[in-house]
Amino acid sequence: NAGVTQTPKFRILKIGQSMTLQCTQDMNHNYMYWYRQDPGMGLKLIYYSVGAGITDKGEVPNGYNVSRSTTEDFPLRLELAAPSQTSVYFCASGLQGQGNYGYTFGSGTRLTVV
Amino acid sequence: KNEVEQSPQNLTAQEGEFITINCSYSVGISALHWLQQHPGGGIVSLFMLSSGKKKHGRLIATINIQEKHSSLHITASHPRDSAVYICAATNSGYALNFGKGTSLLVTP
Q1: If you measure CA to CA, which chain A residue comes closest to B103?
Q2: How confident is the model at residue A35 (pLDDT cuts 50, 70, 90)?
Q3: Cα separation of A107 and B3, whole Å?
Q4: Separation CA A74–CA A49 (nearest Å)
Q5: What is the radius of gyration, based on Cα positions, of chain A?
Q6: Which of A63, A76, A79, B50 has the most crowded Cβ, counting Cβ within 10 A?
Q7: Which of A33, A40, A107 is facing B95, going by the closest CB pair?
Q8: Gap between the Cα atoms of A91 and A100, Å rounded
């Protein structure tokens, strides 16, 4: 099992550019999440999905969009990148109520907007 | 919103020491998670617990629901335990509210 796969691992964007962060999981988890991690801060929820076709905003959704057309994929779209979006982004998935270890995280995408 | 506070923020220990990291949260939860993040690395889920105590190798996690408090203990600490340990709480199953993390350095 690959778990949660995020691509790319690193990216530098210019202000105003757009990009999509890819996230795929092969564990048939129904819950998927996007978080951002800023230095000295706890992870903040951007968007989440409880199943294919269902998405909802988290704590910091502005400047981002998501879609969930399949159980496996949960891409995060950045439109008109801004320096404030410089961060490390983590995708995670979970299957509520099962297992001892809860969530599985991707390895992260380090994004710099210049 | 569930406020999750961790202490200490930073911790340095000598190899072999017993380590405790604390986590408190402000409202009732359905589950409390402990996560580990190595420098520059991804995040690994260590424990998910809703009551009592769980053990995995040298790691022990406990939770006191009445006091809204959880602890992560590391016995016989080793330099490879050096990492950031993150506490997170959920009360809906939908998403986690994270603490800011405790940075642990274990020296030989």
Answers
A1: A40
A2: very high
A3: 26
A4: 8
A5: 13
A6: A76
A7: A33
A8: 19
pLDDT digits (tens, 9 = 90+) for B56-71: 999 999 999 999 999 9
Q: Does A48 touch chain B (CB under 8 A)?
A: yes
Which candidate in A101, A105, A110 is best for mutational testing of the B interface (most B CBs within 10 A)?
A101
Among B residues 55-84, those touching chain A with beta carbons less than 8 Å apart: none
Burial of A62 (0-12, 13-18, 19+ CB in 10 A): exposed
Q: From the CB of residue B87, how many other CB atoms can be counted at a distance below 10 Å?
A: 29
Q: Which of B75, B77, B99 is nearest to B24 (CA)?
A: B99
CB distance B100 to A40 below 8 Å:
yes
Average pLDDT over residues A25-29: 93
Tokens read off for B81: 């335990």
At residue B59, what is the residue type?
L
CB A72 within 8 A of CB A25: yes
With the CA atoms of B78, B71, B9 and A41 taken in that order, what torsion angle do they form, in degrees rounded to the nearest 10?
Answer: 110
pLDDT > 50? residue A99: no
Q: Is A95 on the interface with B (CB under 8 A)?
A: no
